[in-house]
Design goal:
Length: about 240
């Protein structure tokens, strides 16, 4: 069995380091980088959108050649949802971790406009001409994203966050149908101490995605840093339901 981990905004595949180790008893585990992980002020970077993330993940799954467990964090909820619509035969189960679940013709900015708090938007700085959005290295940002992480880990991870292509937030999902996205099994890890996407809003994501299995963790938005062992356990529970 193959398990594919997809990071969220401002992160890289390295965020899954401890999760990779924990899931290896279940099969082959892959953590992949989305385009733009190394910021370059170039024409290539300026063109990046969420569609490039979708293509990257689709091609990776095709290279594996069998249905995979696909796990996505935060922004990656949009990517994995669109891939499930486009290539449902390549996915055995989607698992969302404190993730945004879109509907047809929605982008992340559309969803963010409907959530019950401003989330991390107050700590984000956009540079449209560069197609770049980055997070301030502020105490408030740290308290929003890593509020249940040990202080030293929280500070280290905040400093390591990288710029994200801005168009990844404004690219609209094309279409999600019952026959495509709707046919794929889904689970959701709800993070109860999340200050980026509040539990109330995570519940809305669960309902709009018609998610069948929900697991709860008393963690912040990034449990792979603060509570990796607990996250591994619920991921194992979810994966074992379809074995």
């Amino acid at each position: 069995m193959h398990i594919v981990l997809v990071h969220g905004a401002w992160h890289t595949a390295s965020c899954w380091k401890q999760i990779l180790k924990g899931l290896q008893t279940l099969g082959t585990v892959h953590a992949i980088n989305m385009p733009g992980r190394i910021f370059e002020n170039s024409s290539t970077y300026k063109r990046l959108t969420l569609n490039d993330y979708v293509t990257t993940l689709e091609n990776y799954l095709k290279s594996i050649g069998e249905p995979c467990i696909v796990i996505g964090h935060s922004l990656a909820g949009l990517t994995i949802s669109q891939v499930a619509e486009n290539q449902p035969h390549l996915i055995k189960q989607l698992i969302y971790i404190a993730a945004f679940i879109p509907q047809s013709d929605e982008c992340l900015f559309d969803i963010a406009a409907t959530i019950s708090n401003p989330g991390i938007s107050t700590e984000a700085i956009s540079y449209p001409a560069l197609n770049k959005i980055e997070i301030k290295r502020s105490d408030r940002a740290k308290s929003l994203i890593y509020n249940s992480c040990p202080p030293l880990i929280a500070e280290k991870e905040l400093q390591s966050m990288i710029p994200e292509p801005l168009k990844a937030f404004s690219t609209k999902i094309k279409f999600l149908s019952p026959e495509g996205f709707g046919s794929v099994a889904k689970a959701y890890v709800k993070c109860l101490d999340d200050r980026v996407l509040l539990p109330y809003d995570q519940e809305r994501m669960i309902q709009r995605g018609n998610v069948s299995r929900v697991y709860e963790l008393k963690t912040d938005h990034c449990p792979f840093h603060g509570h990796p062992e607990a996250l591994v356990e619920v991921l194992k529970q979810s994966i074992q339901t379809i074995l």
